[in-house]
Amino acid sequence: MTSNFNSHLIIIPTYNEIDNIPNFVSEISKFNVSVLFVDDNSPDGTGELISEISKSNIQLNLLKRPSKQGLGSAYRDGFSWGIEKGYEFFIEMDADFSHSFVDLKKIIEVSSNFDLIIGSRYIEGGGSQGWDFKRKLLSSTANTTSRIFLRSKVKDMTSGFRCYSKKSLNEIKYQETDSDGYSFQIEMTLRCVEKNLSIKEVPIIFNERRVGKSKMSNKIIVEALIFLINNGIKRWLNLKII
Ligand SMILES: Nc1nc2c(ncn2[C@@H]2O[C@H](COP(=O)(O)OP(=O)(O)OP(=O)(O)O)[C@@H](O)[C@H]2O)c(=O)[nH]1
Ligand SMILES: [Mg+2]
Predict the structure, then answer these.
(1) Number of C-alpha atoms within 13 angstroms, CB side, residue 72?
(2) Domain segments of the chain: what residues?
(3) 98 lines ligand 1 (CB under 6 A)
(4) CB atoms closer than 10 angstroms to residue 203
(5) CATH number of the domain located at residue range(s) 8-236 in this protein
(6) Which of 95, 151, 152, 218 to pair with 45, CA 20 to 30 A apart?
(7) Spatial separation of the C-alpha atoms in residues 74 and 96, rounded to whole Å
(8) Does ligand 1 come within 6 angstroms of the Cβ of 63?
């Protein structure tokens, strides 16, 4: 492994993921990285379980928040926590095994070469497994629409499996983003594009979650559409976004 224990922080937002935590911890312990779970007081006790396990495992950290505040806000708080502690690379990953540890290794290996590495389902070698037709259509439409509206070359703008350097997080002013869900990933990507940062897409195979429930909702879809319309107009008119 090329990573250094003190340089990579994997940030995992969790909401009702109790059944995924034990396996996730056992897989991630094979990597030389630090982990920060950001739990929003999950009613199923995810936070309490992580708190218990992390007592005897210095690789694991927990940021507890009082209530469900969304994925984007969990990442914003996670980035701030990690920057304060001096980490250099910040990896976003889900707790539900949709993101594979084989792909994590690939992302870590190239992490020091680019400002942003995106685990991409829409380049050669990438894809998704286990999704029904409706979910596949939603994801591919979201990505095609984002690319066209935002005039971006990035193929997988909504992917939630990615790695930022500290430099890129500071340059894009991540604290000023205000979206969640799909929109959060699109907004962060767009900010990197606007700042001309180096972006590399690495192929990943996304797997339907093994256990637990999806937090995908109509609210997330509507938020993404409004974001695309607002920012699409700005991009086409060459107006400043950040
Ligand atoms: N802290 C926190 N974590 C969240 C919140 N919403 C979702 N998550 C976590 O973010 C990750 C991604 O959420 P998912 O529900 O898997 O969303 P998704 O991957 O778009 O949807 P599926 O593919 O259907 O699983 C998971 O680890 C969730 O537990 C939230 O409001 N707060
Ligand atoms: Mg998921």
Answers:
(1) 20
(2) 8-236
(3) yes
(4) 17
(5) 3.90.550.10
(6) 218
(7) 16
(8) no
Which two tokens mark 222? 């509507």
Nearest to 228, CA basis, from 160, 156, 142, 159: 142
For all residues of the chain together, what is the average pLDDT? Answer: 95
CB 180 less than 6 A from any atom of ligand 1: no
Task: Tell me how far the alpha carbon of residue 236 lies from the centroid of ligand 1, in angstroms.
Answer: 31
Segment 73-87, tens digit of pLDDT: 999 999 999 999 999
Phi, psi angle pair for 203, to nearest 5° = -65, 135
Q: Is 38 in the pocket of ligand 1 (CB under 6 A)?
A: yes
For residue 3, what pLDDT is reported? 43
92 lines ligand 1 (CB under 6 A): no
Low-confidence ranges of the chain (pLDDT < 70): 1-5
Nearest atom of ligand 1 to the alpha carbon of 70: 31
**Strand 89-92 to 162-165 pairing:** antiparallel
